[in-house]
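Take a look at the protein record below and flag anything odd:
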Amino acid sequence: MNLQQAPAEVQLAVDLIELLEVNQVAPDVALAALAMVTRDFERKLAQKKPQADS
């Protein structure tokens, strides 16, 4: 499969990996930062969901 035909999340993952590697980010630092990003985006997704209690 051509990367240009890959799903958007695969393309983004490849771009992020390249960015981290080019900038020689240590794996432990990258994982800690990605954990923060994950929490942030999970919070954003939760805020977008309709409130079940409303």
The chain has a mean pLDDT of 92. The helical segments are 8-22, 27-48. The longest helix spans residues 27-48. DSSP finds two helices and no strands in the chain.
